[in-house]
Amino acid sequence: MKPIYFDNHSTTQLDPRVLQAMLPYFTDLFGNSASRNHAYGWEAEEAVEKSRGQIASLIGANSKEIVFTSGATESNNLAIKGVAEMYAEKGNHIITSATEHKAVLDTCKHLEKKGCRVTYLPVMGDGRIDMEMLQNAITDKTILISIMYANNEIGVLQPIAEIGKLAKERGVLFHSDAVQAVGKVAVNVISENIDLLSITAHKMYGPKGVGALYVRRKGPRVQLTAQLDGGGHERGMRSGTLNVPGIVGLGEACAIAKAEMAEESKKLSGMRDRLRAKFEAALDEVFINGSMEHRLPHNLNMSFAYVEGESLLMGINDIAVSSGSACTSATLEPSYVLKALGLGDDMAHTSIRFGLGRFNTDAEVDYVADKVISVVKKLRELSPLYEMVKEGIDLSKVQWTAH
Amino acid sequence: MAYSDKVLDHYNHPRNVGSMDKSDSAVGTGMVGAPECGDVMKLQIKVNPLTGIIDDAKFKTFGCGSAIASSSLATEWLKGKTVDEALAIKNTDIVNELALPPVKIHCSVLAEDAIKAAITDYKVKQGADVAALAQAH
Q: B120 in a domain, yes or no?
């Protein structure tokens, strides 16, 4: 039997309705949307334009402001590098935050090598940036603020509308990596004053390998230096023949999200809260990472103190989740996002991310809760740390033999 | 990551989990690692004063499955050995027995360190000179 899927921040299952919408564009409707001379091209172009409208409608944009890409990594690269190059004469300073996705952080690091100056804002204990620090970080050389809409590990929502308002007042462009938020919570580029917004399909029940970048056309008209040279597709911002089936899928995923988001988010937050309540009723020493008030409806990130994350994952191998302990990856470092919240490495090593999704059921929530609780209890029987804490020993006072 | 059958077996059925009285003169306790590093092992031995043989061994481990398996295996191996025989257990023996991948070799090193720390603690309780022990290891 395949594991129960609770890792919906990593990717989501393709919605069958999305697949149905895409299928004809793999077969009969195979045209190149850039072909202007025949019906094959026109059909493809019509499908692409419909998708543009569906995406724009979900985020309050105009369809002319949607640029198709291969996904969020490309959208983030295009937005940040594109602005840095286009506005180099105006300034060279970029402000971002410590908990951004690597596609933003590593892009910024790349630009630092090219002479840009980057401020990495720390976050507060709840995972949100401090607006005053942001305000103070802006200089006359600042050209871009790039702050994610919602975090991929802890689901914490940043004060996007406040950031947008500040950026507009100070004449700085505002980019937001919104891959975790679009289709899950209401996003509006007009009311929130967002100039550039990264979207990907596969986090919202669409296909992998397709995404979009919203690029504001009015007030201000945002310009980008293209990162790919070629046929000048997408208003010259992103060359390359369009992935028509993928784009159709992204559009359909957006249309479904728009119609069902309100109800779905209520359902998912209810399931999430039940999962949390079960953990808290059965176990002591469990902690939520990040703000519960400003959070995606389908995210729960908990530390199960004195139980190492990888050993916990091993015990719940019929459940697909992620751990903040990087013993699982090649780096052997605990999650930089959790560390940015001020969590010690010891607590970061004990965290699990639960990401609920459209296809999860109440029965699965019950199963996952019971299973995790029983494995945590078993591993705590094995944990010298839990034993010491129960004996009243303060672990922070112990002389450990680091290795 | 795929775990070997032996690691899975020790993880699912850990041997000799528990704690012994730290103040007992026949008990040696070794605690190694640090919570920030993601693993802490506590390993205890109980030595028969008449025979010098390790009668009992217990462990508790905070760490990944390989760390749990390494310490569980160590307690199995310790029982029935003399203290000097126990000192001969090498981390590479644990690596081979559990088929640990390279990224998990530190778990076996930690287990060897825990064995040595427990024996040192036992010897100190028996009146041995700590400095001399440190040199001997």
A: yes
Range of the domain at B65: 5-125
Which residues of A fall within a CB distance of 8 Å from B10? none
**Do B11 and A311 count as a contact with CB atoms less than 8 A apart?**
yes
pTM recorded for the entire structure: 0.92
Q: Which of B17, B110, B113 sits opposite A382 (nearest CB)?
A: B17
Mutate to test the interface with A, among B40, B59, B66, B107 (most CBs of A within 10 A): B40
Write out pLDDT tens, residues B35-55.
Answer: 888 899 999 999 998 999 999
B69 touching A, CB under 8 A? Answer: no
CATH code of residue B102: 3.90.1010.10
Query: Does A16-257 match A261-381 in CATH topology?
Result: no
Overall domain count for chain B: 1
Tell me which residue in A314, A386, A403 faces B33 most closely, judged by beta carbons. Answer: A403
| Nearest chain B residue (CA) to A312 | B64
CATH of the structural domain A261-381, one choice from 3.20.20.30, 3.90.1150.10, 3.30.465.10, 3.40.50.410 = 3.90.1150.10
By the 8 A CB rule, do A153 and A338 touch? yes
Share of chain A above pLDDT 90, in %: 91
Of the candidates B28, B38, B36, the one whose C-alpha atom is nearest the C-alpha of residue B75 is: B28
B35·A349 Cβ contact <8 A: yes
Residue B76, in any domain of the structure: yes
Q: A16-257 has which CATH code?
A: 3.40.640.10
Looking at residue A346, what is its pLDDT? Answer: 82
Catalytic residues of B: 37, 107
Whether residue A327 lies in the annotated active site: yes
Residues of B in contact with A310 (CB under 8 A): 38, 64-65
Q: Give the C-alpha separation, A304 to A281, whole Å.
A: 13
B102/chain A closest Cα distance in angstroms? 11
What mean pLDDT is predicted for residues A7-14? 96
Interface test with B, best of A303, A308, A322 (most B CBs within 10 A): A308
- A310 in B contact zone (CB under 8 Å): yes
CA distance to A52, A252, A302, per residue, from A207 (Å): 16, 10, 29
Does residue B14 fall inside a structural domain?
yes
User: At A345, is the pLDDT very low, low, confident or very high (cuts 50, 70, 90)?
Assistant: confident
Instruction: State whether residue B134 sits within 8 Å of chain A by CB.
Output: no
Active-site entry in A108, A116, A254, A327: A327
Q: What is the pLDDT of residue A262?
A: 97
Question: Which residues make Cβ contacts (< 8 Å) with residue A349, sequence separation at least 6?
Answer: A308, A309, A324, A325, A327, A334, B35, B36, B38
* Phi (first) and psi of residue A151, to 5 degrees: -80, 140
pLDDT in tens, B56-85: 999 999 999 999 999 999 999 999 999 999
If residue B43 lies in a helix (H) or strand (E), which one and from where to where?
strand B39-47
Dist. CA A130–CA A160, nearest whole Å? 12
The span from the CA of A346 to the CA of A303, in Å, is 10
Residue linked to tokens 């409608």 = A57
